[in-house]
Design goal:
alpha/beta, 7-stranded antiparallel β-sheet, 4-stranded parallel β-sheet, 4 helices, 32% helix
Length: 193
């Protein structure tokens, strides 16, 4: 954080304290390259949260060499002459970073479910395997990896698409009844073998 006066610095500190954002360095005066270097150290300690690799400047100049260095190092500099504009732009940036992480990490989540194959409902025996299943428990979603636990956790593949009544769906529950699933694998697993 950089500010032109001590009072402004105190207001910025209180704002970040309320948001539970850690502060590594505070200073009065223009933003120089050495100040950006301190933000680079903070970025190195917490690579998961890029909103922590930022600098807030209130009513200060950003030196050209500092701006170039910050851009090269991936440090975001917020600078404003009105404190509420600074708060708003930083708050929006933090919100966007959190949303981006949710989207990125959401694809890694696996929702457990138990399936039962519908008798005589195999439509393709090789990859992609297409079979009819009933969801017994949980939620089956596109992207869910499937395995057979009693066969030494035999991995069948990943659900790449599903259909219910010939209409594509993204998830299926026990109440939905039978659904057709397409399971893609590396070709080492086939239906009936």
């Amino acid at each position: 954080m950089q500010a032109s006066t001590i009072g402004s610095l105190e207001a910025l500190l209180e704002f970040l304290k309320q948001m539970k954002i850690p502060v590594t360095s505070v200073n009065i005066g223009p933003i120089h390259k050495k100040d950006v270097l301190k933000a680079c150290k903070a970025k190195a300690t917490d690579r998961q949260k890029k909103e922590f690799a930022t600098m807030l400047g209130f009513d200060v100049r950003v030196m050209p060499d500092a701006a170039k260095f910050a851009e090269d190092e991936g440090i975001k500099i917020f600078n404003a002459n009105i404190i509420y504009h600074l708060f708003d732009s930083f708050t929006e940036y933090v919100k966007k970073c959190k949303e981006d992480r949710k989207v990125e990490d959401g694809s890694k989540a696996v929702f457990p479910c138990i399936l039962e194959m519908v008798k005589d409902a195999c439509f393709n025996t090789k990859s992609p395997i297409v079979i009819g299943v009933n969801v017994k428990e949980g939620v089956l979603r596109v992207g869910t990896p499937l395995c057979i636990p009693d066969r030494e956790n035999l991995r069948l593949g990943v659900v790449t698409s599903m259909e219910l009544n010939k209409k594509p769906i993204n998830q299926a529950r026990a109440k939905d009844g039978g659904v057709a699933v397409k399971i893609t694998n590396d070709g080492s697993v086939q239906y009936g073998r």
